[in-house]
Specification:
Elements: E1 8-9, E2 27-29, E3 38-39, E4 42-43, E5 47-51, E6 54-56, E7 66-73, E8 76-81, E9 84-89, E10 94-97, E11 102-107, E12 117-121, E13 125-127, E14 136-139, E15 145-156, E16 159-166, E17 170-175, E18 179-181, E19 191-192
Parallel strand pairs: 1-9, 18-19
Antiparallel strand pairs: 2-5, 2-11, 3-4, 5-6, 6-7, 7-8, 8-9, 9-10, 10-11, 12-15, 12-18, 13-14, 15-16, 16-17
């Protein structure tokens, strides 16, 4: 069966707003059910890691789930094995299966927040969910110290929602427009503490 080559992107991501138990992936892919990538209740290829001459179809996967480098053309490196081909270039990402099915991938973006950051409230409302419809559970005063655990995404008016810890271990979601981070500006948050908004 003729298998087409496809493109994927190398991203040297070192940090993530999403909590990963292992290194953040170079790509995330929306792998549908019912493909040769289905394995024991999960799908290979939902995260891709590029390790030089190998491409892992999952984090810390079995050697059996890694694709070797098989060819290079210019800026594109091709990884293939068992009816799956992935090519890595600086610009795009997708997986192509022997069946001809193409699976698009998105490069993982470094947002500068890996294990959390110290921050402060600017009169933040704490909610049970990461949006305006989440039940209000607390109101933090101006200058209340918080620990920013992770970016929950869900952008609203140019700022993201974040899981924060405050007041001796309480947790909830706060809109980034009412937060500042200490020492550096976390993307998705209003500003670095002590600097004008």
């Amino acid at each position: 069966m003729n298998v087409k080559f496809i493109a994927a992107t190398i991203v040297l991501a070192c940090a993530s707003s999403t909590a990963f138990a292992s290194p953040p992936p170079d790509f995330t892919c929306d792998v549908p059910a019912g493909t040769i990538l289905d394995r024991d209740g999960y799908r290979l290829g939902e995260v891709l890691h590029v390790y030089g001459e190998k491409l892992a179809l999952e984090t810390y996967g079995d050697l059996a789930d890694q694709l070797p480098l098989t060819d290079s053309h210019g800026a594109i490196n091709y990884y293939s094995k068992d009816g799956v081909r992935v090519a890595v270039s600086p610009d795009s990402a997708q997986i192509e299966l022997a069946s001809g099915q193409v699976i698009p991938c998105t490069k993982h973006v470094d947002d500068g927040l890996m294990e959390g950051a110290d921050g402060m409230s600017h009169g933040s409302t704490v909610r049970q969910a990461a949006d305006l419809n989440g039940t209000k559970i607390d109101k933090l005063p101006e200058g209340e110290p918080v620990f920013i655990w992770e970016n929950a995404g869900n952008n609203y008016q140019g700022y993201d929602w974040f899981l924060v810890e405050y007041s001796e271990g309480l947790k909830g979601y706060v809109w980034g427009g009412t937060l500042c981070s200490v020492g550096f500006k976390v993307p998705g948050i209003a500003n670095e503490c002590g600097k004008p908004f």
